[in-house]
Design brief:
By secondary structure, the chain is of the alpha+beta class. It folds into 3 domains: about 55 residues, no CATH class; about 110 residues, no CATH class; about 110 residues, no CATH class. Strand 6 and strand 7 form a beta hairpin. The longest helix has about 60 residues. It is rod-shaped and about 130 Å long. The relative contact order is 0.07. The chain binds zinc ion. The site of zinc ion (ZN) has 8 residues, from loops.
């Protein structure tokens, strides 16, 4: 196991200090941010200056994670600001940018500021505006804590330092933490409000669409039912006609029975045919005063018509339909 070379140590006042700013050797008076073990500042002439653990066993663990977390807080608080990510309102695949990534400068900062039952890593104040900064190295912010930010109306941003290594913690660490490391909004009131209004708009549009779909489906059902009724009527009527035609030829029944049955079938059939071809109103008019040229009135049939007469009557009835004007002329 190679000896851990730490670029930062934890001073008694709780701040991380760079090896360049402390006396050499044990006089540096710093401990390991991870295990709390004593460190010695090694500032020789050959290898890069660093802190090393005093104990033979080396580090008890967690030095990098703890350094990153502490350093993140310290740098943001000292700088009193950081670079913020883009503000975007998103609903499903819709995306509305509200503000570009930009630097944020506060007037005051506080490490481990209280927020209800929680503490946020750094709180920044700019006028009446509060911004919480969470540093994540091993664990992302919990949903409960995000809810607390929302409830308190505090915008919050999460700084992800989990990808940084010891080599990143040299003089360029400030720029990495404050500007370049990945960051995301945990809560942004403006994006949230815009998102809500977008969601409401989408829900409204969807409801409208659903209503229109339902209306079209109803319409299609109605048209289908109408068509089916027409087909059913056609089928029934064809059967009636066939039966009637057959009965005209039937000589086996006593004449009065045949006449009676034919009479009622004829009348019913004619009424139905008139209703179907002419519509209810025209059919009523036609049945009460049949136009000249038709062989008979329905109720006063002097003699049962022949099959040819029946067919002729059907053709006339058919052509009496208002939409058959042209065929009639031909
Ligand atoms: Zn250690």
């Amino acid at each position: 196991m190679t000896e851990l070379a730490l670029p930062w140590g934890l001073a008694p006042d709780g701040r991380l200090v760079r090896v360049a700013t402390v006396p050499s050797g044990k006089a540096c008076d710093v401990v390991c941010p991870g295990c709390g073990g004593g460190l010695v500042a090694k500032k020789g002439g050959i290898i890069r200056h660093h802190f090393a653990h005093l104990a033979e066993a080396g580090c008890g663990g967690g030095a990098l994670e703890s350094t990153l977390h502490r350093l993140g807080k310290q740098l943001v608080a000292d700088n009193c600001g950081l670079h913020l990510p883009e503000v975007v309102a998103e609903v499903e695949h819709w995306r509305k940018p509200l503000a570009k990534p930009q630097a944020f400068e506060a007037e005051r900062s506080e490490i481990e500021a209280a927020l209800g039952p929680y503490r946020c890593d750094v709180m920044l104040w700019a006028g009446g505006y509060r911004l919480a900064v969470e540093i994540t190295v091993t664990h992302p912010c919990t949903p409960e804590k995000i809810e607390a930010f929302r409830a308190a109306g505090v915008d919050a941003v999460e700084l992800d330092l989990s990808r940084l290594r010891w080599d990143d913690l040299g003089p360029g660490a400030g720029k990495l933490v404050l500007r370049d490391a990945p960051r995301r909004w945990l809560h942004n009131a403006r994006a949230e409000a815009e998102r809500a209004s977008m969601a409401a708009y989408i829900a409204r549009k969807r409801a409208e669409e659903a209503r229109e779909q339902a209306r079209l489906a109803d319409e299609a059902r109605r048209v289908r039912a109408e068509r089916e009724a027409r087909h059913a009527w056609h089928a029934t009527n064809a059967q009636w006609l066939a039966t009637y035609g057959l009965m005209l030829e039937d000589r086996s029944e006593p004449q009065w029975m045949v006449a009676d049955r034919r009479g009622s079938m004829w009348r019913n059939n004619l009424r139905a045919a008139a209703w179907f071809w002419l519509g209810a109103d025209a059919a009523a008019a036609w049945l009460s005063t049949p136009p000249p040229g038709l062989p008979h009135s329905v109720e006063s049939q002097p003699a049962w018509p022949s099959r040819q007469e029946v067919q002729a009557l059907w053709v006339q009835l058919y052509l009496a339909r208002p939409d058959k004007e042209q065929e009639r002329a031909a």
